[in-house]
Structure formats: structure tokens, C-alpha cells
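User: Please look over both lines:
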Amino acid sequence: MASKKINVNDTNSIVSQETENKMTMNKWIKSYTNQIGAALPSVMTPERFARICMTAVTQNPALGECTPGSFIGSMLTAAQLGLEPNTPLGQAYLIPFRSKDRGLECQFQLGYRGMIELAHRSGEFKDISAHIVYENDVFEYELGLDPKLKHIPAMKDRGEIAWVYAVYHLISGGYGFEVMSKSDVDLHRQKFSKATGFSPWKTNWEEMAKKTVIKKALKYAPLSTDFVRNVTKDEAKIDFNLDSESEGGYNIIQGNVVEAEVEVEEGSEQTQIDIETGEIAE
């Protein structure tokens, strides 16, 4: 059998449309159970994780309309990190967003509890937390050579949300904190969250705000490359590289185009898709 390269995320591709019509998203999920199992930590079975993802598609039908590459890539990222997507645990989310060029795509987003879980797993933190500050709380902070942070929550009538901050202490003795105003958090959300319809920012703003400020606090912390690599997958464009010739093999990449292969019969027309544009090459 020969192979034909296609861009599975190009909704205008004839081959892509034919492939997607034959495969519902739940079928895509089931077909990659082996890859899910290879990515997951031992504490979770691939069958359970697959059911969680299929439930997410049922609860949010827009996920079922996303390009397969973006959805599978985001799903396997959650599996690699050992985080349950779109559950009440709030560890991670699979978010549909609309791309100008390719229709609905899926974005992986870490949740606040997922960020904390990854931090604890790294074994580098003595403690790490984030808190919401309200207008009537006592709140003071200073930067410079002698940074200080003080927060005393009001006992009642705390008012509206004003600030969000994160604090961490490393086992090695280092520490740090970061403070963001509510408007700063909202600007970050507008820039990086591409969700249409369902979004954890709409249902759980405080948790997502805490995650955002923790990421900023850890930006310059002396952390392991594995932890940093895991955190950078948050809110990233992740595509799944479908390779029909490698059993169980997958490659999660950052970028706008994913090149994939599907098998075709010998003697049929070999259509080459330009991986830069997603168009059929002459």
C-alpha cells in the first residue's frame, strides 16, 4: 500500500472531509485507545480516560465538530500529563474555538488544580497557592530589593474582585510571588483563551485567574525542564500527527499545520498536500 499525505485539519480538503465523515469524534477516541494507554500514568486506565473524553464530547457537541488532529492532540496532551479533562476536578479542559481558516479546532487548557497537581508531582515545591483579593480586604505588596506581600481577608462584605496573587516556596529554599489586577487577568483571557461557547473562564473565572497568576509567578523560578515543558502546553495550539505507517506512534507538535498520512490503494492518484498552505500541490 502507498501512502497519501493530507492535512487532516484543513476542512476544505476533500480527502479530509471524506475521512471526517466516516469517523465521528467518539470513533476517533476509541481508535486511539492504545496511544492513550501509552501516554497515561499507571493510576488511570485508558478505557476510563476515553470514557471521560467521550462524555466531554457528549456534553459539548462543538468538540465533536473540531478538526480531528486538534482534538486528538489536545486529548493526548491531557493523557500525557495524567489530568482528567472537562470533569468537576477542574484539572484540564478541552475547549473548542473557531479558526478563521479551518473552522472549529480544539485547544488544551490547564485548570488551576491541574497546575497545582503538576507542581506537587515535580517534587520541587514546599508549597504553592493562589488567592483572590477583594476590594475590602487588607492588601499590600512591595517589589524591589525587599519584596513584601500582606493579605488579610475581610470578615464580611468583601466587595468586588480586585486582585489575584500566587505564592510559592521551593524545597531548595527559594520563593516568589506574583500579583495581577482583575483587569490584567481579563486582558490575558482575551489574548489567550480562544473559546467559543463553553469556556472555564465563563463558568469558573476565579480558578482560571489563579492558574494564570501561578504561571506568571513561576516564569522565572529555577524549575526542572520537564515541569516547564508541561506547563508550556497550556493554551497552546497542539495538533496530532496521524501516521498510519507507525503503529501506536504519535507526535504532538506546536504549530498551525499538521501533516498526516492515510493509506490508499496502489495505482490510485497520489495527491500531495502542501504542508505550508494545506492546499493540493500541482
User: Anything to note?
Assistant: The CA atoms of residues 237 and 255 lie 6 Å apart.
